[in-house]
Amino acid sequence: MGQSVVLTGIVLNAMPIGEYDKRITLLTRERGKITAFARGARRPQSQLLAATNPFSFGEFEVFEGRSSYNVSKATIRNYFRELTEDLDATYMGFYFLEFADYFCQENNDEKEMLKLLYQSLRALSSPAYRKALVRAVFELKAVTINGEGPDMFSCMHCHSKENLHFFSVKKGGMLCETCRDAAIGRRILDDTRYTMQYIISSTVEKLYSFSVSDEVLKELTEIMEEYLRHYVHHTFNSAAFLLK
């Protein structure tokens, strides 16, 4: 058995192994995404029974082996049980977990993604936030953290910062009035552009501190759906259960 370390993180997914064990994927502050085994975690009296379920956030004491980690103890700060009271919130929460699992890497610095995931699940658990807005904010910030976000601050063709009224998925950002024929783009509301600029540039802690009109939310949702379809070549299974 290797050295014991304590990692702060959240369970992204869990699957049964053998008769009583679990294999879990953790997104951690210290080691990025890791796979760990929880021996006996499916026994009714196991301290790890609930701690190794998806959404569980806290400290995990693990032993680092030659090729894997083994969970020995867990102190959970938040189970996000509020999500289970709303089926739509549950599905969207699983979508966020799957999204993070796809984008994050082992032994990579994933502190910002961990913060984003945690804050987004908190917002999703609260009736104060519209789920569609939480989803759009999460998606845009996640691709930005991973270096794949759109440029909302200057024209993708001439680099002008003025008269930015057209968004081009193909170009990966904004186009000005003069360059709007340089690629296929759609005119978007100034408020939509301001919202996307705020999401991209804001710290994770300040992300869920605003509301938008129905018109802006509809446009933002359409943009993110098209943007992800173009740049993220992956089918998220949990997305099939999300409301349009």
**Number of individual domains:** 2
H/E topology pattern: EEEEEHHHEEEEHH
Largest beta sheet: strand ordering? 1-2-3-5-4
Helix content: 25-40%
- Strand composition percent: 25-35%
Low-confidence stretches: none
- CATH homologous superfamily placement of the largest domain: Recombination protein O, C-terminal domain
Distance between the termini: 48 Å
Number of H- or I-type helical stretches: 5
Secondary-structure-based class equals alpha+beta
The backbone outline, from C-alpha atoms, is elongated
- Could you tell me the radius of gyration in angstroms? 20 Å
**Nearest-integer average pLDDT:** 93
Largest sheet: 5 strands, mixed, barrel
Any idea of the CATH class of the largest domain?
Answer: Mainly Alpha
Strand element count: 9
Looking at the structure, the CATH topology of the largest domain is de novo design (two linked rop proteins)
CATH architectural grouping of the largest domain:
Up-down Bundle
